[in-house]
Amino acid sequence: MNLPNSLTLARIFLVPLLVVVLLTKFEGAVLFGIGKELLGALIFGVAAWTDWLDGFLARRRQEVTTLGQLMDPLADKLLITAALVSLVQMDLAPAWMVAIILGRELAVTVLRSLAYSRGVTIPASRLGKVKMMSQVIAILLLILGREHLQQFFIVGQVALWVVLGTALFSAVDYYRRFTQVATDPRLGGFEAARRPSPQKALQDTGTLLER
After folding, report:
1. What's the mean per-residue pLDDT of the chain?
2. So where are the chain's domains?
3. Less CB within 10 Å around the terminal CB: N or C of the chain?
4. Model confidence over 26-64: pLDDT tens digits?
5. pTM value?
6. What percent of the chain lies above the pLDDT cut of 90?
7. pLDDT > 70: percent of the chain
8. Please, which residues have CB within 8 angstroms of residue 79's CB and are 6 or more apart in sequence?
């Protein structure tokens, strides 16, 4: 396993640690005098940073693999889902907002899978990338704002609304592009999926699984 894939795997292992730190009630400091909110924000920040680092190293070292292309989006979704659900449990984020954001993730994944069954990939949109960045900022600020700086919490709430807005708009954009694929007469039905060549499949898998 190369270094980029190892970083992706480490991000997956950080997910349960993040949930334990955020949701477990500790008496006093958690580690070396650091409160659990600060420690949780540190864990999440490191995990989010590895998301950028593993992709950068994979391209820089020319170590892009099929395993990495499959694990990277999975690790991202696990991290964001765990963090958002934890925020709901901590009363830092409304459950209905988190339900919409996570529901959008599921819906877009289904649409992409259906499109891919016809041999067509739907690449990530700019709104989707903005949403991911907003999610990281919102989660960090909400965690830090609970026990430390109140202004962090306020900005985090604003960032969460940005996440919700970009999630909905990007979902509409994905659906629009999906309907173009579904109604294209040049493509076969979903039950008769085209089978691309192995080289084309490897290239398309990375594009399909982007956020």
Report:
1. 78
2. 3-208
3. N
4. 665 556 567 788 888 999 999 999 888 887 887 787 877
5. 0.77
6. 25
7. 76
8. 11, 14, 15, 18, 44, 47, 48, 51
Q: Is the pLDDT of residue 205 over 70?
A: no
Bridge partners for 34 per DSSP: 31
Q: What is the DSSP string of the chain?
A: --HHHHHHHHHHHHHHHHHHHHHS--SS-SBTTB-HHHHHHHHHHHHHHHHHHHHHHHHHTT---HHHHHHHHHHHHHHHHHHHHHHHHTTSS-HHHHHHHHHHHHHHHHHHHHHHTTT---PPPHHHHHHHHHHHHHHHHHHHHHHT-HHHHHHHHHHHHHHHHHHHHHHHHHHHHHHHHHT-TTS--TTS-----HHHHHHHHHHHT--
Q: Which CATH class is domain 3-208?
A: mainly alpha
Please state the rounded mean pLDDT for residues 98-119. Answer: 82
Which residues, other chains included, contact 202 with Cβ-Cβ below 8 Å and sequence gap of 6+?
66
Residue 208 has pLDDT above 50, yes or no: no
